Amino acid sequence: MPQLVSHPEEVKVISRRWGKGAADIDKYIEMGGYASLRKAVENGPEWVISEMKASGLRGRGGAGFPTGMKWSFVPKQSEKPKYVLVNGDESEPGTCKDHLIFLEDPHSIIEGTMIAGLAIGSKMGFIYLRGEYRYLIEIMDRALAQCYERGILGKNIFGSGFDFDAISQTGAGAYEVGEESALMESLEGKRGIPRIKPPFPAVVGLYGGPTVINNAETIASVPFIIEMGGAAYAKIGTERNGGTRLFGISGHVNRPGVYELPMGYNLKKMIYEVAGGIPNGKALKAVVPGGASCPILRADEIDIGMDFDQLGKAGSMLGSAGVVVLDETVSIIEFALRTIKFYQHESCGWCIPCREGTDWLKKTMTRFYEGYGTVKDIDNMSYLADNMLGRTFCPLGDAAAMPMIGFFKKFRGEFEAYIQANPAAPETQALVELVGA
Amino acid sequence: MSPEMNPEMNPVPNTIFSPELAARFDRLVTLYPLRRSALVPMLLYAQDEVGAVNDAVIAEIARRIEITELDVRNVISYYSLLHTKPHGKYHVQVCTNISCMLRGGNEMLQHCKDRLGIGNKETTPDGVFSLEEVECIGVCCWAPAVQVNYDFHDNLTNEKMDAVLENYRQKASAP
Amino acid sequence: MADVNFTVDGKKLTAPAGTILIEACRTHGIEVPAFCYYPKLAVQAACRMCLVRIEKVPKLQTACTTPIAEGMVVQTETPEIAQARKATVQLLLGNHPLDCPVCDAGGECELQDMTFRYGAPTSQYVEIKQHREEQQWSPVVFYDRPRCILCYRCVAVCGEGMDVHALGVQNRGAGSVIAPNLQDHLDCEECGMCIDICPVGALTSGTYRYKTRPWEMNHVGTVCTHCGDGCKTTLGVRRADDGMEIVRGDNRDKSGINGDFLCIKGRYAFDFANHPERLTKPLIRQADGRFATATWDQALDYAAKKLKEVRDTRGPQAIGVIGSNRTTNEENYLLQKFARTVLGTNNIDHHRTADYVSFVRALAGKGSRAASLRDAGTAPAILLLGNDPTEQHPALAWELRTNVRLNKAKIFVVNTRDIKLRRQAKAFLHIPEGTYADAVRFLGSNDSDFNGIEGAKDFRDALRAEQKLVIFFGSEFRGHDIDALVSFGLSLPEARFGCLADYANSRGAADMGLLPDMLPGYRHVSTPGPFAEEFPNLPQTPGKNLIEMFDAAERGELGALYVVGANPVSRYNIDPASLKNTFVVVQEMFLTETAQIADVILPAANLYEKGGSVTNSYGDLQLVKKAGDRAGVRSDLELIVRIADRMGAKPQQLVPFGRGLRSDSGQSRGAQSGEADRHTIWLASRQIEPKVSPFDPYAVLDEIERLVPGYDIERMNLLAGNDVPTRLVSVESITTPRRDLVLPAEDALFTSGTLGRYSAKLAEVHESHRSIPGATPTETAAD
Fold first, then answer.
1. pTM (2 decimals)?
2. A391, C125: Cβ pair inside 8 Å?
């Protein structure tokens, strides 16, 4: 079982009920659960949306789109039913925060889903979890059943006339399904190929109806925002980056775990103080700040506030806030190979640049790692990644290209040294030089 | 699930599934605005019971969802948890993605290979274990991690892994 | 919709709002490249080749997904865009086998074109290519995964276009493949659209693969010889030892009435021409009953001598003539002219697969209410009564499906069977066997019930609310049933009609007067009108129909029978013995059941081996062009002229060639004198040159255009290769023919009457479908 960690610097919003048995509805209610829903029902959809806007909450899946604005895009009138879709397909390497939410506080997801439903005028929500999280789906299903037993889900909730149904859905192993339109395809029983946008889900989404789709962490933040008010939430973080974030710190740290810290928290402090520093007295080499798709930061770049804007300026991303810490012993070549292997495995294959690009990057990286690389290969791979960037059907292509570009740019010296240390057979060298453009 | 959400079910005749699973499927297709939404869960649950999404499973699920078998196969082949050939009784899935790799995921994979005497994507001759190197399973902060069927085992060491395997081996030989 | 102004590559353009950029560009002659985009199919945005730069948008955008907007400024060819496309081509070439020198698509390959255009001349990758073995999915479809660039066009056309859904995408990422519905093979309609639409050589045709290179062929656009839809097919021909061999059929030329579509028969079933049993020498039956080869002179002399002898000794009524529904209009016209003016008899008929005589009578005075095949693709509502177009009229089925998909047309289906088109139907009235006439009566009535069928009244009410209905009906409707149907249709404001027949020129055979009581254009023989002025001494009493001819033969009253391209012995189940005292001349490609009882067999060219015109079920006239050629065979047109010539008739009287019968075109003595050569005047007035050969089909076409009601068409349009609708001009009320004269061919997708038996590929497909367990059974024709 995952272990919970804590640190005095933490600001517990989403994690406030963790480790306290909140998966049980009685405990949840005892700790103030479903009061936010009641408050939302009493104050109505427009109030909810204005509080959400005031909170400055930005999507926790990675793109960081303002949640309140997203909800407000859903048309008030719609011939087709509207839906709320919770994205719990957590698959970004380095990320396990939603895992804990589903495990420790599933009702916060249900409550957030219902508040979202109330806000946009939807009567049905789907909570999609990746297939590997079977035990969490079972926990979620128990939580949902309890809600129906208590009349929290179903018809005429709190006697207010608000009807809402929610069910869980399992994935079956596909990173790509974490992309919102691919998730809708998957939920409709299809291959997880993203949809052409526009139309955006807020207008034409699940089953053709207007749909709000939010990351599980985003949704779990909603009850707190409603409870405390948007302005109070916004104050927690930095400017334009309201609230807290679940930072999953993994890799070479002494106390890995999921910590809830204010947005904009300093990365260096996070690694050395919150997570207890690098084990065995090793030096830090680099950090992937937000899950595998975020370009790597060298050790000298980590004195930075962890929010969307500061990381963006530094040429990386906050992504899913999965902080992966690499000590000095790590081979960037091996790390890059493992990264591109993942994206090659997970590319849905729909578009040419991503399907073929990830495949050739992986093939070339594999040969390079095996000691048959040349300088030309580094150039070729850089060229390839550059040409994938911004040209693929969905963000997966960028997610694969960006970290690779980062490795080539920031650790070119290590790539070159790797060739020196593992000189390719002359015939390979000649072949690559001859053929490579 | 609310009783309101459970409209009339029409049991599908001549099922290859257990009565419990068949009843679950009869109900599953009624839960969604579109029948087809039941496809992915149905495939996964059928695989759990049958051991693989084999031809018979595909045929019955196509019938239940009212789509072609081709369509079912297109979907199966997309999702990495679904497989048309059976795995071992206990499918050992070792994560070697970045967070696990940094904490010994590759070594754990090698250890499992050595212990089980099989390679990646192979099954032991007795059919008890199969082994697969998998992508991130969402247990990054407790690496290295392994999933056996749906059970997570984290913060592993070789010794802990041996105990995990031994535990399953005993379960397999229990009457 | 309102027009939108936008700028592409500095050109100010206008297009209707809502048009997607790639289409708007193409309309204005700016080609934005794409592999996955195909007009009228769902947008996929997968290949990323159509990336363009749109002002004020940060990233390159796909032109296939971007609707044009007012003031939009677009660049389609900049160094940045060229680099993006080059990189994509490089990625594809990384794994694409460079077997272009042997690939079917070499020279016609969109990937080659893009490589050429964007210059990716060097290999970027040194890793080993991922090889997979080629798969054969059906007798006619092969799949080569390494060549496949995964554009998904094939999946789209098979799914949304054909409504067959036999192709899918399996696996993901670089492991993705196109997969057939039965795992390692296909159960489908074998239309080959997937092959046609493939931008590279990944899907190849069982008839054509590895046979030749595209540039070694001549490509001849002509009309398919099989069903009554008249699809344009492009035949690739190559020089062979004994003429020009047809090696490929496809639909490269999308200008035809069939648009993007071609079915299995148009695409593959040309191979009968090369069948080993093809007759290439005239045969004369010997005293011992066996056939012996003869020279053309011997055979033609013998046939002419005997026909003349019977005519002169036993009278014209002792001769019967049976024409074909796969010969050209010119041949049909000439054959009836020969029968009526040289033999002197109205004993002429053909195998009728629809009752056009009743159709024309029912629409008397309302000829403008006839529908073209094109209407099936544009009409807002269509009523389909009887028939199963998916099997019998594949192009009609395609047009209907496309119309539903693109224009949301409403299809109403009335049928005794669960035909596949019910899936596109807005409403389907499933009626009991034998109740078509009752159903029509119900549609026109105010009855509240029809055979207790649920929804029948709603069906009728919805139908009757349609302002612009097009009604297509099958051969289930004959005689007075057609009257009833037409009068129901005419009760709707703008309804139009199409009568479905089974063969390439079934309609033409009827239009050209291969009928015992009708002259060309359905003018009754008793009131020949202008024909009498042209051709004195036309027999004016109706002759024997096909059934009566064989009855007469049985009674010993038929001295001679002249059969051109038909197999009545098999089709009408005639006892060969009944013809033992009849001299039979047969023009045929094969030793059919009918040819076997002949006294003289003249080996004939088929529709792919000659020029002329044909008229499809819907009255659309199209030119056929000579594609193949086989040493030893002659066109039916030539054979008719040669027999007439040898019987002592003047060829000029049959075929208006040369300077006509009189050198005087009427100028010196005045047209009123009655001696003017009307044909020459007609030609001169249209500035059409006289033809120089009696075997020139265009000489006959001139006369058809001049004399046959409804065939006074726009010649230039026809010559341009377009389909030109003829008009139904009924002259006077005519009798209702016998119901049993209509004998539906009952062909399905994989059969084509006698001809189908000699197509090895069609037979192979037919057989393979019978042996696929669980595959859709298709009906078999009677012969």
1. 0.94
2. no
